Amino acid sequence: MVNTLVFLPTETLYRGTSKHYSIVKVLEQVYYTVGVSSSVSPPAGGILSFHPIHGVGIQNGVFMNTSEHLPQHASPLQEDRQTSTVQERSYTEHRILRGASTIYARHYAGTGPALVLMHGFPDNLHIYDRLIPYLRGRQVITFDFLGWGSSDKPMDYPYTSKQQEGDLQAVLDALGVEQVVLVAHDASGPVAINWALDHPERVSALVLLNTYYADAPTLRIPEVIALFADPAYAALTRAMAREPNVARWLLTWQGEQFGAAAPGQGTLLPTVLHQFADTPSTFPAFIHLTSDLQATLRADTQRLPELKTFARPVRIIFGADDPYLNPGVAEHFHEAFPTSELFLLPKGHWPQLDGPEEVARLLLSVPVTTKR
Predict the structure, then answer these.
(1) Beta-sheet strand order (sheet of 4-7)
(2) Which end of the chain, N or C, is more open, meaning fewer C-beta atoms within 10 Å of its C-beta?
(3) Is residue 124 within 8 Å of residue 148, measured between CB atoms?
(4) What is the pTM of this model?
């Protein structure tokens, strides 16, 4: 396949020149602005589901959710109430066992290799709520990684990128899905790419949305992520996480740098922030994954040469206005994957929220292969 670089119409294409805030600046802003002041045990394996009407069914020796959420009768969970567009498609809910914990997943029936939509941190599956209605007719899977959204949030758990590869494997195996188009956003990039490298026979295509994998010349680590990732500040960041006002301000400030408070993004910050205020909180996952970030980048940088050998179609779709996972990162991916196409959209960090119809067209038109 010939490399293709496509620039979508836009008046100004962002080139990653936004102002950089140091960790010291973040801390100054924190202190000036805020001031310092499940009961059911899962079975041994398979899928655990709870159905107020249909009950729990067993299929192929595993516990399987057989109830569908229909658009006109959907009874959304707490975080579902933030958005409603996802209710335009029906889906089946699953609770998938991963050790002693369960992963929450949604399966939308349809044709073709399943589009597996993965979130980064501190997001959850709801970053795809606006996109899914435009994927009508296509099989779609979304899920929350352990520690996020509606999945379990065990306190003493080794949250790492490698662990999340296991989450992905558990979801696909439990749902019996063989061929997939992996769609990665933000911190799920390393998960999707490494899983694809290790299981190319199951990957029909790979799609990358404003994500990262390894060291790249223009990659910028978000300031709050850098703060929590630095072991020199471990005691400080753990203390900050225990102060609700400080933690909320940090996450809100970082979201604003990404554009989460921009017009059209009104539901994003509440969807993300409530995970941290809930009990159990998503903070343990956030702290462990940020602590794991540099080790993940180093390990994946060692695997960069393997990307040259990846023969499946790769489509790179980046919002060009992202100051962190910017067009330079997208171009670095484009150089690393010989089979890749690159599309730069006049969008921000969440192109699936900023331009769902446009992103859906690119997803539905991605070339797929089932060659083993």
Answers:
(1) 4-7, 340-345, 314-319, 203-211, 180-186, 111-118, 138-143, 101-108, 91-98, 68-69
(2) C
(3) yes
(4) 0.80
Question: If you write DSSP's letter for every residue of 2-22 in order, what string do you get?
Answer: --EEEEPP-SS---S-PPP--
User: Residue 122: is the preceding peptide bond cis (ω within 30°)?
Assistant: yes
For 186-229, give the DSSP string: ETTHHHHHHHHHH-GGGEEEEEEEEE--S--TT----HHHHHHH
Q: How many CB atoms lie within 10 A of CB 171?
A: 24
What is the DSSP annotation of 244-311?
HHHHHHHHHHHHHHHTTTSTT-TTHHHHHHHHHHSSS-SHHHHHHHHHHHHHHHHHHHHHHHHHTT--
Amino acid 371: pLDDT: 62
**DSSP string for residues in 43-75:** -SSSB----TTT--EEETTEEE---EE-TTT--
Give the residue among 369, 357, 356, 372 at the shortest CA–CA distance from 128. 356
Quote the CA–CA distance of 299 and 285 in Å, as a whole number.
Answer: 20
pLDDT score, position 258: 84
Residue 93 pLDDT? 95
Residues for the chain: how many in total? Answer: 372
Taking the C-alpha atoms of residue 361 and residue 368, their distance in angstroms, rounded to an integer, is 14
In the numeric block, which tokens belong to residue 16?
A: 């990653």
pLDDT means over runs of 10, the chain (372 residues): 44 32 41 38 40 35 48 37 53 94 96 96 91 95 95 92 96 95 97 98 97 96 94 93 87 83 62 79 89 94 97 97 96 97 95 95 92 61
How far apart, in whole angstroms, are the C-alpha atoms of residue 342 and residue 4?
Answer: 6
Q: Please, what are the domains in the chain?
A: 4-44+101-364 (3.40.50.1820)
pLDDT score recorded for residue 369: 84
Q: What is the end-to-end Cα distance of the chain in Å, rounded?
A: 17
364 with 357: CB under 8 angstroms? no
Closest residue by Cα to residue 312 from 215, 202, 227: 202
Taking the C-alpha atoms of residue 251 and residue 273, their distance in angstroms, rounded to an integer, is 7
Question: CA dihedral defined by 271, 273, 279, 283, rounded to 10 degrees?
Answer: 120
pLDDT for 262 equals: 61
Q: How far is CA 312 from CA 102, 138, 148, 201, in A?
A: 31, 20, 30, 9
